[in-house]
What does this fold into?
Amino acid sequence: MATGRTHRPATRSRGIPEATVARLPLYLRALTALSERSVPTVSSEELAAAAGVNSAKLRKDFSYLGSYGTRGVGYDVEYLVYQISRELGLTQDWPVVIVGIGNLGAALANYGGFASRGFRVAALIDADPAMAGKPVAGIPVQHTDELEQIIGDNGVSIGVIATPAGAAQQVCDRLVAAGVTSILNFAPTVLTVPDGVDVRKVDLSIELQILAFHEQRKAGEETGQVGPEAMEGPEDTAPASPARPTATATDRKGPDGDVPAVMPA
Amino acid sequence: MATGRTHRPATRSRGIPEATVARLPLYLRALTALSERSVPTVSSEELAAAAGVNSAKLRKDFSYLGSYGTRGVGYDVEYLVYQISRELGLTQDWPVVIVGIGNLGAALANYGGFASRGFRVAALIDADPAMAGKPVAGIPVQHTDELEQIIGDNGVSIGVIATPAGAAQQVCDRLVAAGVTSILNFAPTVLTVPDGVDVRKVDLSIELQILAFHEQRKAGEETGQVGPEAMEGPEDTAPASPARPTATATDRKGPDGDVPAVMPA
DNA sequence: CGCTGTGAAGGTGTTCACAGCG
DNA sequence: CGCTGTGAACACCTTCACAGCG
It folds into this structure.
């Protein structure tokens, strides 16, 4: 079964590395800020600092686009803004639909930096009939029934899913069937899509959990410990820790201890 | 100048790879779903499908945690839920503050899967005095003036920034000074933080731009082209394309063409 | 001389393929 | 016999360090 693949395996010899693509928007934002302050040129060092990356990485990234700098000087801000915009496809504009106009969907609809760079909210779609017609961010909400129609009429190829998790796959399927080939998913579900459709996910609770992991590690370091597994001590200090399914007495396979204490304070 | 570093350089020999950490929440979610359906065990193949990754990767990921499976059978669901929760630090709960209660902040406050797994919204903070006292998601909003007090009293170590971009760095500095060491940033800015503070960012427009890049590439492939730079044609078809800063006549350094046509239709 | 652009080296992450245990 | 756990190969990404151009 095809689990929602996100990127094709970097075919095409002259492809820009995925990691680089992911940073181009960052550079673009920094450059736009410079442009607004009428700064004419910028060095890799300065721009890298503004974008929060190191300068070698930035230079290598730009080298995939071409030789757009001037040695001994730096990069022409306007020129680079144009080149990156073009590379990202922001010189055309992309109609986008947002499906699921709850708290989050409304927040997205109101998000300014949205329309600013190449993206246009073509429609807001919600399953709740009571929402239909109500304007959010100046755009009237339309009912899910009209989804296919809207996608078709507006030539939408990018969809944003901000529905509850339970509805996400179904909405996704309809979007894809109607012709959408790129999806930004805010629902906490794994979406399954056919080949050729890109999915990116944004997931609050995943991000928080990653932070918690590092946070916990820091706390451990302070007291001279490595992590949750580093504390050796009397067994079963942890609350309701499930026993191993069929554990023999000598069965201790975890990297350090099986059932570590999770310090309450 | 220290640009906001996010991870320490993978010190500590028995560290779990960052990429693995980032997937643990995914596994956890899939396992939780299985647990709710009272599924007792699961194979790497099944679980991988549910989490949207391949099974070899999943097995390797789990191998960093320890040998928690049973050969010929699979993994005990409950046991694995516990082990991953523990590894992620979700067996303790983390008080979190959300700063900036606009559309997005409200959406985050209302987000359910939040409280469910180890995270507790300790406070909502906003700079607008008119918001003070108003309850959002059942929690009264407090004014920014009280930020330090709130952090201290509640022992908050994780902060979520959902303010406008302009306020983000300032809020960040105050959070960090008050003792927060992990930040989830929704504002479209690069945050600079001292060493030892983790920042993760969630950025809608970056995600959209990445999708646009791939989308454009797809469109190019359909018509037998690679990307924006592949179209050879009469110069200056593109609107307002800035000329190269100090270009000599033979100056053509881009990978294919300097000023490509961006097809309007 | 200063800065870009880039080979080369070193890391990190992924995938393969199979040994080995239950 | 089936499935986990893992060495080894591979692919990708980052960083270094410096050649070379303006």
User: Anything to note?
Assistant: Chain A touches chain B through 104 residues (CB under 8 Å). The longest strand of chain A covers residues 119-126.
